[in-house]
Amino acid sequence: MSSGRLERRAAMTTLLTDRGDDLLVVPGLGSTCWDLAAAGDNDRNFYLWGAMGGAAMIGLGLALARPDKRVAVITGDGEMLMGLGSLATIGIQRPANLAVIVFDNGVYGETGMQPSHTQNRAERAGVDLLKVAAGCGLDPCLDVRDEAALADLAGRLKRLNGTLFARVTIEAAEPPRVLPERDGVVLKRRFRAAIGL
Amino acid sequence: MTDKAAAQDWPERLYQTFKRAGIRQVGYVPDAGHARLIDRCRADPDIRDVVLTTEEEGVALAAGAWLGGQRAALLMQSSGLGNCINMLSLARSCRFPLLMLITMRGEWEEFNPWQEPMGSIVDPVLKLCEAEIFRARQPDEVEGLAERAVQTVFGDERIAALVLSQELIGKKVWTK
What we know:
The complex is a heterodimer of chains A (about 200) and B (about 180).
Chain A: H1 8-16, E1 23-27, H2 31-38, H3 55-65, E2 70-76, H4 77-82, H5 84-93, E3 98-104, E4 107-108, E5 114-115, H6 129-135, E6 141-144, H7 147-158, E7 164-169, H8 184-194
Parallel strand pairs in A: 1-2, 2-3, 3-7, 6-7
Antiparallel strand pairs in A: 4-5
Helix pairs in contact in A: 1-2, 1-7
Chain B: H1 3-21, E1 23-28, H2 35-42, E2 48-51, H3 55-67, E3 71-77, H4 78-84, H5 88-94, E4 98-103, H6 116-119, H7 122-128, E5 132-136, H8 142-156, E6 159-164, H9 166-169
Parallel strand pairs in B: 1-2, 1-3, 3-4, 4-6, 5-6
Helix pairs in contact in B: 1-2, 1-8, 3-4
């Protein structure tokens, strides 16, 4: 890819192709939530319309509660930065069925493309979420920058055996919003019903 | 039970309440007032103790636990409630059950004046966040109030806080 960056909607679709009934997905609020909805609605998605900084911790609580399922948190760099401490918390717990995947474009797309901490600047490199996650003990930590690495990540997501972290470098584009259900009680009830609760 | 025995026993009673309620995940930021309860939870193989970097993580943890069919509790000091406020919108928007146990600072025999600004607004903040408040001032009322908080949380899918008064916990000893 000429830009060295992946297209976010295609990346989400690749990760979720043939996802299986045992994959539970929590996006961040904003762009990753629209990406997840665009990839196809599923009762086993718990869309977030708020709770910024909370996606990874929702994933942790879910992964600890359901060792029989795989849990993927797929969020953006801005959302992850707000909950950076949760990587430390997850690093202590390290459930074998959790993947934290960050779509990193270095900007806050929802609010007007302001640069995030991860963006490289002329005077210095941006914050490296991969190093943060590795320092917190998540393993493996994957740097996903091309289709081959993305396919590898999609494969690993199908057979999780550790607390995986992946940074997926994506283009700073803003595709049209695809809005999922936004009633939180409905989202909660349908999610629980889908896994037999 | 004598007053003295009850005074020493209430953390154990809280642990027993957790067990009866089927609590499986306990999130906490370490706190002296909760120290005995934290120790009991850490020693229990059926309870996953999750040490947090900030209390708001625990609000999200409890939501995730409930999505997966487990009950969680969140332990914090009064200062930690302030860290939770926006994340409580997750529990409110989705009606997630959320059981909070809050040890008070800044209201009685407080040496550290920096605890007073947040300690003084715990009750109004909880009310504004639509949490039911159960305030324990005496050791012998802790267990009964904890049971009512559990019922409110998991029976009605609501937020409830068991607020443990500073007088109940005792004076923090400051030495140099």
